[in-house]
């Protein structure tokens, strides 16, 4: 009987924890206005079309570079960027500019409350900023690869 109570309590806590986590995530996105949602959707669509345009401009050699599993993802990306033609470089710059413009429009449309909610979402459970966490992981990987060579 006691074990059943423990199991029920654990299940309740798990379900409660999951539901509160999902509720927090949905609140941040539900708080956006229709115009802000449209800006986000436009940004997603622009990124998608930009990727398709870049992929369509790749030569057979460049596609082979992307499929080379012997190289790391970073090495494949570096080789690809190094092999870009002038037109492909211009296309990449134009794409970056367009996406940056949409990001700035979105940022300008945010209220202070929305900014706070976004900042709160960017924090991990331990209170560490996700960007800082990402950078520390990158540094650890660099140190590990330098030490291994």
Draw up the topology in text.
Elements: H1 2-30, H2 34-57, H3 60-67, H4 73-82, H5 86-109, H6 112-121, H7 130-148
Helix pairs in contact: 2-5, 3-4
List keywords for this structure.
mainly alpha; 83% helix
Order of helices and strands: HHHHHHH
Count of structural domains: 2
H/I helix tally: 7
Radius of gyration: 22 Å
Oligomeric description of these chains = single chain
* Structural class category: mainly alpha
User: Which spans of ≥5 residues are poorly predicted at pLDDT below 50?
Assistant: 22-28
Q: Strand fraction band? A: under 5%
User: Which percent range fits the helix content?
Assistant: over 70%
* Overall pLDDT confidence: 79
Largest sheet composition: none
Number of strands: 0
First-residue to last-residue Cα separation? 58 Å
Q: Which term fits the overall shape? A: extended
Description:
It is a single chain. This protein has 149 residues and is mainly alpha-helical. The chain is built from seven helices and no strands. It has two domains: 1-30; 34-148, no CATH class.
